[in-house]
Amino acid sequence: MFTILPLMLLVGIYMGKRSIGELPIFDFLVVLTLGSVVGADIADPNINHVHTIGAIISIAILQKIIVRWKIRNRTIGRLLTFEPTLVVHNGKFLVENMKKINYSIDNVLQMLRQKDVFHVADVQLAFIESNGELSVKLISPKEHVRTEHVLTNVPESGIEIPVILEGNLYVDALEYQGLNEAWLRQKLLQEKIANVHDVFYASINSQNELHISLKTEQSNSVPIYH
């Protein structure tokens, strides 16, 4: 067990936060190991239950020791727990950060919609947390709308329609809005973008306003560690 567990830990870290899900990586491995030990005992009646009990107790003690180390030692805590990853900054997707954690634009867009965010331009900061969940900080005007829209008459803003995803242009999405490829390319040229393949994400809203996020977007935001 003490030989396999470090290997499983390294594999879990390599797989990343997306694969692990909501559990911290070491807790995930503890649950997996406990399940394997108990499953082996149930599957093979010839296994001595004393050995199984000893293994379960050892795993529980090891888990407690690791938790105490994580609390007392910041370095160990950061090693065994994924750091938050910034994926959207001031309405722009950070492509390199998304690649590091194996998240696609479809994953992030879906998670934004689950947070009731339908306009990427409204996002000031969006983080993928250590448990794989998305945390979103909207720009100030939109935050006020979100908290006060029940008491005030806020105009309907509709949803964004993606027209470019990872350099691929979707003409049917433009036609749905009564637009065409020539209109889009003209808008891109106004932003000094000559090649559609340089665009990571582009969308239009109900007012036909274009929002663009390039593949080369960089973040100058303050690093956040948990």
Order of adjacent strands in the largest pleated sheet: 2-1-3-4
The outline comes out as elongated
Share of helix, binned: 40-55%
How would you state the average pLDDT, rounded?
A: 81
Estimate nothing, just give the exact number of structural domains: 3
Strand content: 15-25%
Sheet of most strands: 4 strands, antiparallel
The overall strand count is 8
The termini sit apart by 30 Å
Uncertain segments of ≥5 residues (pLDDT<50)?
none
Structural class: alpha+beta
- Supply the number of helical segments: 10
What is the CA-atom radius of gyration, in angstroms? 24 Å
What keywords describe this structure?
four-stranded antiparallel beta sheet; elongated; CRO Repressor; 10 helices; 8 strands; UPF0702_alpha/beta_dom_sf; alpha+beta; 226 residues
Explain what the structure shows.
It is a multi-pass membrane protein. Keywords: Cell membrane, Membrane, Transmembrane, Transmembrane helix. A four-stranded antiparallel β-sheet has the order 2-1-3-4. Strand 1 and strand 2 form a beta hairpin. The radius of gyration is 24 Å and the shape is elongated. The mean pLDDT is 81. The protein folds into three domains: 77 residues, no CATH class; 54 residues, CRO Repressor (2-Layer Sandwich); 54 residues, 2-Layer Sandwich (CRO Repressor). Helix 3 runs antiparallel to helix 4 and helix 4 crosses helix 5. It has 226 residues and is of the alpha+beta class. It is built from ten helices and eight strands. Helix content is 47%, strand content 16%.
